[in-house]
Amino acid sequence: MPYLLDVSHLMRAARRCMRRAGAPGSDGVSWATYRNGLRGRLAELSERIRCGDWHPAPIRPVEIVSYTGKVFTAAIPTVEDRIVHRAMSTALDPILDQVLADWVSAYRPGRNRITAQRHADAHRRAGNRWAADVDVAGASTGGRVDQLVDWLAEHVTDGSFLSLFGRALSGLPSPLVPGTGLWPAVFHLRLAQVDRQLDELRIVRFADNYLALAPDADAAESAYDRIAVALRSIDLSPHPRKSAIRPPQLTNPEDLFLIDG
Description:
two-stranded antiparallel sheet, alpha+beta, Reverse transcriptase domain-containing protein
């Protein structure tokens, strides 16, 4: 809770939010307006959080077309709610970094597509050249607030923080809607429930793409089934078009983890 109650922490969260341009939320307040008297605004926000009077404002939905042509709805919170989301995320980042397996990359400091490729290449060099390539369908959508709060409660014991986390998620159209500062933490918290069931595999996850390396086709099939079962435990499944067993000639590390690949 100090990340949400200490004005200096809220100030850091606000400055991180202001590093990138952002459109106003549903209240029409821009960063140019909100930064006037910023410290006083943050002191008032801190007091509302302390007293339990902070509630997320309605979000402004916008349609975005990705560079793959996919159209999806993103949420634009108010600038003040963005500060709260960022402060929560800052508090959670070091906790989730300890929770996530070493073989998980993306949306983590120092962990990107290059680190995922290096992990995969190490498995290939050890003789595991077949791959169970599983792209998760709908990994960035849906989710249940109560389920996410329960999962976080395994690692966070502060009841006030957990309550505020649930309140922030309940103010969104769905917990994993793109566009909020909480999205990376919620995304990883959800898939960590799958990761913990797969540690025995020679596996790499980059964002929502699981790649299990195996010495032969049968072992790759078995790994694919293991991943599918683990995904079903949290009501997810492999993407039917993007997921496949890949033979050695199709597991060149530089060709792995491509967007829509």
